[in-house]
Design a protein that fits this description.
The complex is a heterodimer of chains A (515) and B (552). Chain A has 515 residues and is an alpha/beta fold. Chain A has eleven helices and 16 strands. Chain A starts with a strand and ends with a helix. Chain B contains eleven helices and 27 strands. The chains are: A alpha/beta (515), B alpha+beta (552). At the A-B interface, helix 1, helix 5, strand 9 and helix 11 of A face helix 2, strand 3, helix 3, helix 6 and helix 11 of B. Strand 9 (215-223) of chain A pairs parallel with strand 3 (68-69) of chain B, so a sheet runs across the interface. Chain B: It comes from Favolaschia claudopus.
């Protein structure tokens, strides 16, 4: 019974005029409590609709990848070798040379060993010049030559590479061939080339084995005005011009030469034939001492290759009009594309064969010594291709792992960064591709395929534009907008609650005092 | 040994010279025409023909395309055409208003203000899988816009779905559409952006598509300082397929310059005066390269050098016959007299206005005058962004105040979808001889969402101009061209003579624009109000009343 209601002896309630009949502490407290209950009940909803979607990433699985190391089992079978001790000593020599960190498990076996045929290489003992084809190496195998053989095998299995020169791995490359005439209107320019023929003769034999690693889109164009952004220096003899090493770094005039492509994001490898204008011939490349070098080609690391082609001077009595533009003669085309083939191989990271090895053509068993600048026009050996596959695979696996780790770290560090379903999906798919990589006895091409999938997905997740969505919209802005509402509404609420609690305690102490 | 050497030299000789060039031909032409009001119209045309090429069939988009090897054809453009399997493509970037009444018809008929892009593309493989979604016409149309925007540094990418229409009659393919199997239908897409400003950054990529860039040949005359100073200028890219020839790319540049501005009351012009440059060498790869000058017929004049040939009052200068540097000069004996009445050369005169000062409604009025003694039938096309919608019931057609609803036939109207699709109104209109037909239609203006306003919202929106397409006189009724019965194995090769299109200038519509500081004001105001109401109600509910005894 409320304290201010008194009961009349005849049963009707009596009112105390010093207290207000319509006011009840109980109802007032109920009202204040219901406000607070509403606010507390609404907080989860508010939290839900204003929070950023951050799905959890498989952090532990990413970190667990650090323990994994790629191992490539490599078997070397010895043919025509009678002495069984040779294989053990070769094994020992190879173990010294190839460190475990390079991920190769080399096993030397005798022929006819019932072993699985994956990645097995055959060393055939024979006297004469060492030669290689496919996965065979013909080399004298005697105790005296063993250390030389081990050196050679090391070079074949783990070739040295120039990481700065090699273009980054991509499942598809665009090969853009461009014939640039500096100034065709000045005469003596090259008006065309038999590009399809040259590609099928010089590049297709290389691109077919390389299709295990990459797909290629090939395109070509001819330009008739391609001015340089600088003037080549005139040489002392007065009749020729030179490009200093500094000039080579600014040689590509991307503002004037329309080389860029607007339809795809595939990396482009450019191959440029530059024909200097008639007034600047011959144009030569100078070495650091300012002397003309014998080479007429240079390579821009990860970008492409450039060959400077000086058309022969027009003394030939057969050519009537000295200023006529003519197509590229087949002999020059042959030389150009041999250079392009070499440049392509070094941009793609295909290792060269050690210099003292010749290629044995696969069809006939006769070996022939091929000059090293022409050897690439022959098909690639399995040694080279496998070494490249192993290198690309481990690079990709490392790249994918690094990218995944960066994603996890970044998401961990920046709390406003959203992680959506697609980013999470890409990370998970990349991880499972990475994990599949370590299944034993996988053929090399499919390891590469897994590693490339892992890398592609990891980079796609890393560069996902959705991860930036709320990054630049900090929580302070939200509070700035809400505070006019929240501040003015919560202050009376809090004040009323505090006042009520104080009043209630006072009442209780009074009640205790009365009792 | 000697014979061997001889054979080697044979390889260098012209036989192979021809072989490389047989695949592609490039030719250039400059047409200069003095206009009746003393100005000079010039039109550059650069044509590259890729012999024997066919457009890519979009059904094969998932199959690896063959390698692209070009000598004269622009590779950057070839990539776009192959990647998105475009059969026919037209892009125009024009600045200013072509004055049909004073200048007559332009050499290149597409002179819509700003950027316009239209293309024919076949439907890709129809399955709805995610990989093929990018092969659908609309996806490729979007990618094409983005690629061209990148290539030409223009805001073509903003020609989005809200501006894309597919009118069926005013535009017909210039070339032919390949006869692929019956399931492959060609779709037409058109979009225009009248507020696009055309300037040097668009000309530079345009010049890069030419084999001789702007360094030799006629393209050397394309001097941005002069061209963008002209009274009117515009560039165009037209790709079409000719069944027996191949894929043709035509790059055009038109301008109207004013020699009278140079001082003196003389309309004498020379290449140096018009372009501030002369042709100092020929493009070495052009199969033909010529300048055609329309010579005066009534007045005395002198031209230097002498034209190689004169046909129909047009002198042709073949660059292979001329000595360099070449500076053409045309002089009149008499000084120029401004005509009091502009001599109307165009058979039609079109005016279009937006009336009404209210922010939510108005009226569109078009008057078309046919001064000819024969009736003319035209296709009238309006493509309006959804911010303006037409009340078709209020459409009124009158000639000299008399209502003539019979003149308008076969109306097709695609209603706009707010925030989604543009409206298309297309109709056949017969214009009686020597009369002015007035078309009047009520329009409503939509309210835009806060974020839909352009950055310069107070300026208003540009409405693309209407298109009045004169049907070729020979093919009297259009229905034969659109007849679906004769779509046999080979779709009928469309006639070369295109419907002559007349573009009206863009209109500026001023939709209701809000005060853009509004959201913040609204937030603050609403918060204060809610806080006030909340405070009062809460106080009223929880106030503790106390009775005080007043001292007697």
């Amino acid at each position: 019974m409320p304290p201010h209601v008194h009961v009349h002896p005849d049963g009707t309630s009596l009112r105390d005029p010093s207290r207000l009949f319509y006011q009840s502490d109980y109802i007032r407290r109920l009202i204040i409590a219901s406000y607070w209950l509403f606010i507390i009940a609404a907080i989860p909803l508010w939290w839900h609709i204003t929070s950023i979607e951050r799905l959890s990433l498989p952090t532990a699985r990413v970190h667990a990848q650090a323990a994994n190391h790629l191992r490539f089992p490599v078997q070397i079978q010895l043919e025509n070798v009678q002495d069984p001790s040779i294989s053990t000593s070769l094994q020992k020599l190879l173990d010294d040379r190839i460190h475990k960190s390079q991920g190769l498990d080399v096993q030397v076996r005798h022929q006819n060993d019932p072993a699985n045929p994956i990645d097995s290489y055959v060393v055939r003992a024979a006297e004469g010049v060492p030669s290689a084809n496919e996965r065979h190496l013909t080399h004298p195998v005697r105790p005296a030559t063993l250390s030389k053989l081990a050196d050679l095998l090391t070079l074949l299995l783990v070739p040295p590479t120039d990481a700065h020169r090699v273009a980054q791995y991509s499942p598809r490359y665009r090969l853009a061939f461009t014939l640039l005439n500096e100034d065709a209107a000045a005469g003596g320019a090259i008006s065309g080339w038999d590009i399809s023929g040259a590609i099928s003769r010089h590049l297709s034999p290389l691109l077919t084995p390389l299709s295990v690693l990459h797909n290629f889109t090939i395109e070509s164009q001819v330009q008739f005005h391609a001015p340089l952004a600088f003037s080549p220096t005139s040489l002392h003899d007065g009749s020729s011009y030179g490009l200093t090493p500094e000039d080579l770094t600014v040689f590509v005039n991307s503002a004037e030469w329309s080389l860029s492509s607007s339809v795809s994001n595939d990396p482009v490898l450019h191959f440029i034939v530059f024909v200097p204008s008639a007034s600047r011939r011959p144009l030569k490349i100078l070495d650091s001492n300012g002397l003309p070098s014998s080479s007429n080609a240079f390579l821009l690391p990860q970008w492409g290759g450039i060959v400077i082609y000086n058309p022969p001077s027009v003394e030939s009595e057969l050519q009537q009009d000295t200023n006529a533009n003519a197509p590229l003669p087949p002999s020059a085309l042959h030389a150009l594309f041999s250079t392009f083939a070499t440049q392509l191989l070094s941009l793609l990271g295909v290792p060269n064969l050690p210099p003292d090895i010749s290629i044995a053509s696969a069809s006939t068993s006769t070996t022939q010594k091929i000059p090293s600048d022409l050897q690439t026009t022959d098909a690639l050996t399995g040694w080279q291709l496998d070494a490249l596959l192993r290198r690309r695979t481990s690079e990709n696996a490392k790249g994918a792992y690094d990218t995944l780790q960066s994603i996890v770290k970044l998401v961990d560090q920046i709390e406003n960064m959203p992680v959506g379903e697609d980013v999470r999906g890409d990370v998970l798919d990349s991880l499972s591709a990475l994990e599949e990589l370590y299944t034993p006895s996988l053929p090399l091409p499919s390891t590469l395929h897994h590693s490339s999938t892992a890398l592609t997905l990891a980079s796609r997740a890393f560069f996902s534009p959705k991860m930036l969505a709320l990054l630049y919209f900090p929580a302070e802005h939200k509070y700035a907008v809400y505070s006019p509402l929240f501040a003015s509404a919560t202050i009376p609420l809090a004040a009323a609650a505090i006042r009520e609690v104080v009043a209630w305690r006072k009442q209780r102490t009074e009640a205790v005092g009365v009792q | 040994m000697r014979t061997l050497r001889f054979l080697w030299v044979l390889g260098l000789l012209p036989p192979c010279y021809c072989r490389y060039f047989s695949g592609e031909t490039f030719s250039e032409e400059l047409v200069i025409r003095p206009l009746p009001d003393g100005k000079v119209a010039s039109r550059f045309e650069f044509t590259t023909l890729l012999h024997g090429a066919t457009p890519r069939n979009p059904q094969n988009l998932s199959v690896e395309d063959h390698s692209q090897h070009y000598t004269l054809f622009p590779l950057a453009l070839g990539q776009i055409l192959r990647e998105y399997a475009v059969t026919e493509l037209h892009l125009t970037l024009n600045a200013g208003k072509w004055n049909y009444d004073r200048w007559g018809y332009p050499e290149e008929s597409d002179v819509a203000t700003g950027a316009s892009l239209w293309a024919w593309m076949a439907e890709g493989s129809g399955s709805a899988s995610a990989a093929n979604a990018r092969h659908r016409v609309d996806a490729r149309w979007r990618d094409l816009r983005n690629a061209l925007a990148g290539l030409f540094c223009a805001s073509i990418a903003s020609l989005d779905e809200q501006r894309t229409t597919s009118p069926g009659r005013a535009f017909t393919p210039v070339g032919a559409l390949p006869a692929w199997p019956a399931s492959v239908q060609h779709a037409f897409r058109h979009a225009s952006l009248p507020s696009e400003n055309v300037c040097t950054e668009n000309l530079t990529p345009f010049l890069k598509l030419l084999p001789c860039k702007s360094l030799s040949g006629l393209a050397h005359l394309l001097n941005p300082h002069r061209l963008f100073d002209a009274d009117w200028h515009g560039m165009g890219l037209h790709v079409s397929w000719r069944p027996n020839e191949g894929v043709q790319v035509r790059l055009t540049f038109q301008s109207v310059s004013d020699p009278l501005r140079a001082g003196g009351n003389s309309r004498d012009w020379s290449l140096r005066l018009l372009f501030d440059r002369v042709v100092d060498r020929a493009c070495p790869v052009a199969a033909s390269s010529r300048i055609i000058v329309t010579l005066p017929t009534k007045e005395l004049y002198s031209v230097h050098p002498e034209p190689s040939s004169v046909v129909d009052g047009r002198g042709a200068f073949d660059l292979s016959d001329q000595s360099f540097p070449l500076d053409l000069r045309l002089r009149w004996a008499e000084p120029f007299q401004h005509a009091t009445v502009p001599s109307a050369e165009a058979p039609l005169s079109v005016r279009r206005m937006l009336r009404g000062s209210a922010q939510d409604h108005g009226a569109l009025a078009i008057s078309i005058t046919n001064p000819d003694s024969d009736p003319v039938s035209v296709v009238y096309l309006e493509t309006l962004p959804w911010i303006v919608y037409l009340y078709l019931s209020t459409l009124e057609l009158s000639v000299g105040g008399v209502r003539r609803p019979d003149l308008l036939q076969d109306i097709s109207y695609i209603a706009p979808v707010p925030h989604g699709r543009a409206a298309t109104l297309e109709a056949f209109l017969s214009l009686p001889a020597r009369s002015t037909v007035t078309l009047h239609i009520g329009v409503g203006r939509s309210f835009l969402r806060y974020t839909e306003h352009p950055p310069d919202a107070q300026r208003g929106w540009d409405l693309p101009g209407a298109v009045v397409a004169l049907l070729p006189a020979a093919s009297g009724n259009q229905s034969s061209a659109t007849d679906s019965t004769n779509k046999g194995a080979m779709q009928e090769m469309k006639k070369w003579n295109q419907p002559q299109r007349i573009y009206t200038p863009a209109l500026l519509v001023d939709p209701a624009t809000p005060d853009f500081s509004m959201p913040y004001n609204v937030i603050i105001f609403t918060c204060s109000l809610i806080a006030f109401i909340f405070g009062s109600v809460f106080n009223g509910l929880t106030r503790r009343f106390v009775v005080l005894k007043s001292p007697e």
